[in-house]
Amino acid sequence: MSELNNNIVTSEDKDKAIVTEKRVFKDTSNMKISSGPVGQTASLGSRMFDFINYALITLIAFTTILPFIYIVGASFATEYELTVRPMFLWPQDMSLDAYKYVFSSNKLMQGFGNSVFITVVGTIINLFFTVSFAYPLSKKKVRGRNFLLNMVIISMFFSGGMIPGYLLISNWLGMKGSYWSVLIPGAISAYNMMIVKNFFAGLPQELEESAHIDGCNDLMTLIKIVLPLSLPVLATFGLFYAVGHWNSYFSAMIYLSNARDKWPLQVMLREIIITATMNPGDLAMMDPNFQEPPAQSVKMAVIVVSTVPIMCVYPFLQKYFVKGVMVGALKG
Amino acid sequence: MKKAERVALYGTGKDYWKRLWNDIRGSYWLYLMMIPGIIYFVVFKYLPMWGVVIAFENYSPFAGIFGSQWVGLKWFKFFFSNKMWTRYLSNTLILSFMNLALYFPAPIILALMLNEMRHLRYKKLMQTLLYVPHFISIVIVVSITYVIFGSDGIVYKLTAALTGTEVKYLSDPGIFRWMIIGQTIWKETGWGTIIFLAALTSVDTELYEAAMVDGANRWQRLWHITLPAIRSTIVLMLVLRMGSVLDTGHEHLILMSNALNRSVSQTLDVFVYQQGITSGQYSYTTAIGLLKSLVSIILIVTSNKIAHALGESGLY
After folding, report:
1. Are residues B195 and A325, on separate chains, in Cβ contact within 8 Å?
2. What is the spatial distance between Cα B303 and Cα B309, in angstroms, rounded to a whole number?
3. CA within 20 to 30 Å of B296's CA: A143, A189, B209, B247, which one?
4. pLDDT per residue over A113-132, tens digit each?
5. CATH: 3.40.630.30, 1.10.10.10, 1.10.3720.10, 1.10.230.10. Which one for B84-309?
6. Prediction ipTM score
7. Contact between B24 and A143 using a beta-carbon 8 Å cutoff
């Protein structure tokens, strides 16, 4: 009982405290003394504004992730649920059949492997090309630096278009049907390289000079001094490139069209769901006792499997990508 | 660099070459390191630019660039004599201007809304959720659309149950453009806020305090302080957008187009892809691509001039 009383008293005290606080603030604002932090003068209109604003943003954010929640939920759904009670956000019976099916499919697992291969090797190539070009360009003493920088900048605004690029890679270089066609043509993003170059140029020169005095050549300086200092930047752009590789389908679709064994997951996804030329039922050879899961939930499961790797790196992505975009925005 | 400066720095004639050689020898690793990058840019960026000459040829892969017959402006005339060209152009422009009218303001509005939030942890959580779709492959976005809006999908069944009519979201030409814009808004609005939020951090908070002392309410502060602060960013984004009015995002459109919505999904980009890469009409489609690039250059120069005339710094 006393506890209850205490509670009542304290809550009254709190109210009083709030009231006095408000009154105090109101007084000062009437006296036109310089204002406190924004928002302590919460008028009714201002509070309405806040309420509507918070509600709207919450609604928008919820709409943004709603499709993902539904897809994950439906990938666990059973045939019965999909046909009898299709309007659900989360299914009542959970079944792992769709995932068993996906993971037993050689084709899909091959696609997953190809995607991983292209992402890993592609990112290594990206970082090698980007760093090895950005580092010399960050040194003012390099002859021809301005010419090369202009060459890079012009390429950001002009291109030969879709067809000459396609002919170059498929006919003139003969890369069609090999992994090189998806690994090499995007080896350097001019935009990313310029940001890395600016970062290198901003590092303290004394460290590199002392390394030179100790007898390091430029290559050893890059490897032993500059790269260890640039790990966060390398991680940022490694992630930039890796996500790009994992998500891309267009170059694989046009250059690897005849090499089905090299298809990444995204191209398979297009065939299974969008053009519907690959039947989910043909994907795996199951033993006859196993009841085939519904095609709809197999599709959902494939979507989930190809999205999960991105979601795993998303926390890092968000942290670094935002920074990367800011750097780009500030440097113009 | 002027000649006199160059002479003063590096000397003339023999001296110049001697110094150049000494500089290169002194830090040869730097020059060796540049080789892969230079080769990359020359081969993958500059060779294709030179490759547009096939727009003036009757290019065949067997004869090659040098052996193919020179036909001058034949392909340009051919394109304009084809009555369909107005359809490709209008499909492109309608989609582009819908994008400009509906998608372009979305990140600005959302950034202003996020900027008004004062609970920083909640704001951060909302941002985390809003950025997610940007990192999802366009193939997955379209796949999700197919699964949800297709004839087995939940939205399809819901609209059928609620309205009694079956709306063919994926094949109805009247709905196609709305689907494209809707997907773009869903995928990129959250991410698009970042550049505006970055611009908003530079607003001087004393301005707000001064405005409050003068009795400005939230709307007035938003309108007279916050919005002018991101004006130049908005103009810059608009100039960039104008340069790509003829680009409709072919990677996205190709996935959403099918035999039933071809009358609205064939933009210039999609036409180039279908006729060029799928059907092998290389010279014809290169000519269309070249026309597109020329128009883009004119547009970006013009809109940059307009930006300057409005007192903004523009793109360059």
Report:
1. yes
2. 10
3. A189
4. 999 999 999 999 999 999 99
5. 1.10.3720.10
6. 0.87
7. yes
